[in-house]
Q: What sequence folds into this?
């Protein structure tokens, strides 16, 4: 059982109680995973009772962060992805930025630092836009770590310095201490040993005691510095302190690091028994890291690196032993030389056998990881495609139903104001019926198209009476036509046939007529006529608005995403999606789009369909 302070306060089901549990959880993030998880479970229950999606996502994100810290990267990634989906649905940009940063940390753990940097850059761009210095600091720190891993030390130094400046400004002690540890590491890499000591001592002598993780990192770092300086006594003192501190928080990576440094120091002092003892500890913790990791690739890479380091240390120990044996040969007896050689041969044979078994295990596990990664990649691609299709369907529904529904509202408002005579009412309601039928037709067409997108069906080309589709589309804009007093000059009796997908053709015509009506002046007309050539049946739709300049025509013809919608002659607004649909569906139906315009006079859209 965990004891809570202020139980009455924490039991209240409110946003404050969620914040309280999250704050308590963070106290144990780096020291006790089980306690941190205990408070997160409490926070999750309250957030779900409040049905606050942002709070739920925040709790899920914190679960991910805690699992990341203990090395459960697969669980951490699942939580980051789930939290990101909720944050995106709630338009919570800070939350999205945090999840991008979390994904980057996972990639960083895999050694994919170039990919990680892309996510960190996306996250920091959002944070800079929002002026959120808290997460700007964290992103800069993570960017610097990846740059260090990529050996871009000068760029990493700049990132860490900016991170330190902002963390001090915002009084973020934990971030400042972590950044100073990373700056010390950069100086150590560049062999600036005095600067390295300066930053490590800043962490340890801070007015606010560092968390045990950072304390262990700084102590082990100082041990490494003094080893390089040749001051073995200080190196041992700091190394043992770092080792003991890391053991308190069960920081296995830091235990492995400090034990490796200590082993190297004892080896330099020819204390091979102690060197071997800490070398064994180093090996034990490396193996433990390997066994506990859920995503095996990370730990395989770590173990390979540690194994290589162990081989170097073992080789150094053997060289030292050989030197010692040589001294004993000169001052001792041949008998001891033979014994030493026999021991060496036995140990080497045993080591070679263990090494072979170990590499076979790595090879098998590596194949399993590659198989799992391929499966995850395929699933992610499928999910991304489904998500894009969903967004496209919602955009189409929003765009193509807005105009007819607004027209219906206008007719209903005219009737409510009792400004219509009975004859006008009869006429209006007849046209209203056509409007409703037209709107229903549009809705069915959009839903049919949406189903085709979801099912992945191909375009169905068939014989279509184009003149009938024109009349259906004109009828669906009845209220807007009456409002702007626009007349259509179209010979509906002329039968014109094309070869196209009927659902997509309706959407193409609907959007081009809507565009012409939008920019047509009051009391004007829209001309519709047909021409053809050997391959195409062409429809010309011409309005007498202000026309388009050459740059605007070029923009329309060359764009492949939504345009910024311009207001019509009666200040009508749009979504900028209509012409994108026209271009996409014309490509699907092997058609073409041409635009002719005289600026200040008229605009003519020429749509070419395959002849039947």
A:
């Amino acid at each position: 059982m965990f004891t809570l302070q202020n139980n009455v306060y924490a039991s209240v089901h409110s946003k404050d109680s969620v914040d309280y549990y999250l704050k308590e959880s963070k106290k144990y993030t780096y020291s006790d995973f089980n306690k941190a998880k205990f408070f997160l479970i409490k926070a999750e229950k309250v957030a779900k009772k409040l049905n606050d999606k942002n709070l739920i996502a925040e709790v899920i994100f914190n679960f991910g962060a805690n699992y990341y810290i203990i090395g459960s990267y697969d669980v951490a990634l699942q939580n980051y992805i789930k939290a990101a989906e909720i944050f995106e649905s709630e338009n919570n940009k800070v939350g999205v930025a945090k999840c991008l940063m979390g994904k980057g940390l996972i990639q960083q753990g895999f050694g994919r630092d170039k990919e990680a940097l892309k996510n960190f850059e996306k996250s920091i761009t959002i944070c800079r836009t929002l002026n959120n210095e808290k997460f700007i600091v964290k992103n800069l720190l993570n960017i610097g770590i990846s740059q260090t891993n990529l050996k871009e030390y000068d760029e990493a130094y700049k990132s860490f310095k900016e991170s330190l400046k902002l963390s001090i400004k915002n009084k973020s002690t934990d971030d400042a201490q972590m950044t100073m540890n990373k700056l010390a590491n950069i100086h150590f890499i560049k062999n600036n040993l005095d600067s390295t000591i300066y930053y490590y001592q800043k962490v340890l002598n801070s007015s606010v005691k560092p968390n045990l993780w950072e304390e262990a990192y700084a102590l082990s770092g100082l041990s490494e510095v003094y080893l390089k300086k040749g001051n073995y006594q200080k190196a041992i003192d700091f190394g043992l302190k770092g080792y003991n501190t890391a053991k308190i928080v069960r920081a296995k990576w830091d235990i492995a690091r400090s034990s490796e440094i200590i082993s190297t120091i004892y080896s330099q002092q020819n204390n091979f028994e102690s060197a071997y003892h800490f070398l064994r500890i180093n090996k034990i913790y490396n193996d433990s890291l390997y066994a506990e990791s859920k995503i095996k690739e990370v730990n395989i890479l770590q173990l390979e690196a540690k194994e290589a380091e162990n081989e170097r240390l073992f080789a150094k120990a053997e060289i030292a032993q050989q030197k010692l044996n040589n001294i004993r040969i000169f001052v001792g007896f041949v008998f001891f030389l033979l014994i030493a050689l026999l021991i060496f041969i036995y140990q080497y044979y045993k080591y070679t056998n263990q090494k072979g078994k170990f590499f076979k295990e790595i090879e098998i596990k590596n194949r399993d990881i590659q198989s799992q990664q391929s499966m995850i990649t395929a699933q992610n691609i499928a999910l991304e495609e489904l998500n894009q299709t969903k967004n496209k369907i919602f955009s189409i529904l929003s765009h193509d139903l807005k105009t007819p529904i607004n027209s219906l509202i206008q007719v209903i408002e005219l009737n409510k104001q009792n400004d219509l005579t009975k004859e006008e009412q009869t006429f209006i309601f007849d046209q209203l019926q056509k409007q409703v039928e037209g709107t229903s037709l549009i809705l069915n067409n959009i839903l049919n198209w949406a189903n085709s997108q979801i099912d992945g069906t191909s375009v169905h080309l068939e014989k279509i009476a184009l003149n009938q589709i024109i009349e259906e589309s004109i009828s669906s804009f009845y209220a807007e036509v009456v409002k702007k007093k626009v007349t259509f000059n179209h010979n509906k009796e002329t039968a014109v046939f094309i070869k196209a997908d009927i659902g997509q053709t309706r959407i193409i015509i609907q959007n081009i007529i809507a565009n012409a009506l939008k920019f047509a002046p009051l009391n004007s007309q829209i001309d519709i006529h047909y021409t053809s050539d050997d391959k195409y049946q062409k429809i010309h739709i011409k309005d007498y608005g202000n026309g388009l300049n050459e740059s605007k025509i070029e923009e329309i013809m060359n764009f492949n995403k939504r345009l910024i919608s311009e207001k019509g002659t009666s200040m009508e607004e749009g979504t900028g999606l209509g012409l994108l649909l026209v271009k996409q569906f014309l490509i699907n139906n092997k058609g073409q789009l041409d635009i002719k315009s005289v600026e200040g006079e008229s605009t003519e859209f020429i749509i070419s369909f395959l002849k039947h």
